[in-house]
Prior knowledge:
By secondary structure, the protein is of the alpha+beta class. The chain is 26% helix and 26% strand. It contains three helices and six strands, in the order E-H-H-E-E-H-E-E-E.
Amino acid sequence: MTFTHLDAAGHARMVDVTQKQPTVRTATARGFVRCAPEVVAALRDGTAPKGDVLAVARISGIQAAKSTPTLLPLAHVIGVHRASVDLEITDDGVEIEATVGTADRTGVEMEALTSVSVAALAIVDMVKGMDKGTSIENVRIVSKTGGKSGDWLRPGEPAGSGSVSSDASGPASPGASGPTGASA
């Protein structure tokens, strides 16, 4: 068996992508932060003691997508040309969806996963004083486009579309900015 991230001596290495041609690629990830009912109520009415939880989570997720190679040492430094984080408050917590796009030599799945994970961590940080039992659940890639392997959609899930919003009032448009979404 050949391992792509190990050299002949078994040492870790970054995969060489210099010969690959840049292509347009996207990836969408989702996750969920489960919260107590009192946290959900505070998120809905904007009374969380630490401030605007969703705004902090959104900006944290966007910054995380751009910081992925710093956190994952074998991830390639690529141009993140689009990053959006959409949030929806549900009766049980907050749904998170992050979509990342590039025109580069390797995919953005790790950037999308990192975005969702850090957005979720920001929510936990902002509400942990209200609910120490808050948990992060089901972080996963739901779709990707472009690259050598082509398009992929996780069975049973709709494609990433910015379909979650920052409140229960309705869907956000992809890459929307303002109260329901943010993009970079």
